[in-house]
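User: Quick one: structure for sequence A, then sequence B.

Assistant: Sequence A:
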Amino acid sequence: MKIIKLEETASTNEYCKTLDYDEVVVSALRQTAGKGTKGRSFQSDEGGIYLSYMRRLNGFPAENAFKIMINSCTAVCRTLELFGIPSSIRWANDVLVGGKKICGTLIENTFSGGYITRSIVGCGINVNNSFSGELGNIAISMKEYAGKFFDKEKVEREFISNLKKDYSIDDYKSYMDWLGSVVTLKIQEKEISVKAVDVASDGRLIVESGGKLLKISSAEVSLRL
């Protein structure tokens, strides 16, 4: 597998799209235009891991797309565990430590004829960053949680190794200690409280509301624990 390390780039995901490899990892010390889900920007100051993993896929049904999310989020949690940091997954793609965001994931897939032909998994993990002000209320780094600096290169190596492993939906759900609890769903400007019951194999959140079970897509709502 090819690994490309950059000092700076606009976005590691966008950089991957210019390459012609079957499997490649691109990492950068800084991103000037880091991207999150739903068009959000992602702060990418030096000290974090900013990495994209691109693969060409053969015979991967589009209906199994959530499997890519399962593998990426679980890989983040397993990596943090190796360094003594407990984490949880906030459906569908955020990893939290102590209730604050330590990692976000942006997956961009290319589809053809009912199959995924290329997948780019972009992850930003806060390692030795520091956050203050309003951002400090919602974001955290490994250094801030543990009170010490980490060898970022070692963390990155372990993460790349974990990214290449295969995980189950049960592995993914094992980091969701809030399943079975009441959570808040934000739908446009409206917020509703529901009981989170489970996560379906296609990635939809199964909730109980008004005595009925509903399946909710992450494209439609955001979740607040």
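Sequence B:
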Amino acid sequence: MPDGSDTVVMQERVQTTGDTIRIDSNNKPGQNVRKAGEDIPVDEVVLSEGKHIGPAEMGLLASTGIGEVTVYKLPRVAFFSTGDELRPVGTRLEIGQIYDSNRYTLHGMLSRLGVEISDLGVIRDEKQAVERAFSDAVSQADVVITSGGVSVGEADYVKETLEQIGTVHFWKVAMKPGRPLAFGKIGDAWFFGLPGNPVSVMVTFYMFVLPALKKMMGNPHSEPLTLAATCSSELRKRAGRVEYQRGILSREKYDDVLGHRYVVSKTGPQGSGVLRSMSDANCFIILPMESTGVKPGEQVQVLPFEAIT
């Protein structure tokens, strides 16, 4: 600005007559002035460690003339499914066989993060095959994820193999769906053994794997945003475990004084094999460990999917 000036008047508020200009009285000293340093004061941090570099951050860096920054390396993630009954999409099913949906949901959830992905396919329920798959996965990944093979069946070799060639930090968690979850380490790679049921895979990924991957990517941990909603469905539950039931969250007008409120209803059958319950839902209804169920009209805590992803 020219020396001695402190105010900018917009051109459309100026009347000109020859070499004379006229401005009205609806102007204030200092208006329309952007002071040097008002965006980022001297000695202030531009971006803190752990900040995700999105569109606004890229523009902010460019505005300061910074063309390069140091970032965390994206984790390499390898995953595979186990089970003789599993077949890839596009093949013909025989009696007793099902299509492997878990690798597709895992691929979709991992793709949102932008991590490096290695899909190792379906591994047969054979001890040697599982051991080879682990060896291949560890050689190329920082994180190994499996689905299936962590229960107590005779052909569930994932946990057994992990105990022999790696370290089991914990196995089984007090939650539904997703109780038979295994976590440990093989060599330098972290391991997540997810259950075989498709809904359990998604729930345990969002609750355990996703926070871990974000931490590896430099994101500071923060609890996902939940909100209170009025439940319109009856929800059954046993005490002693946390449950993540799938729900449909919406807003409805309550009254002219209180305005709107959040309302949630379950998506129907809540079995861990009902993958459509995830497709129809837009949130988790979180029922705490001590809960014994919910009656219509009671308040519940809801975790919107958008708050996770």
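The radius of gyration is 27 Å. The mean pLDDT is 91.

User: Thanks, that's what I needed.
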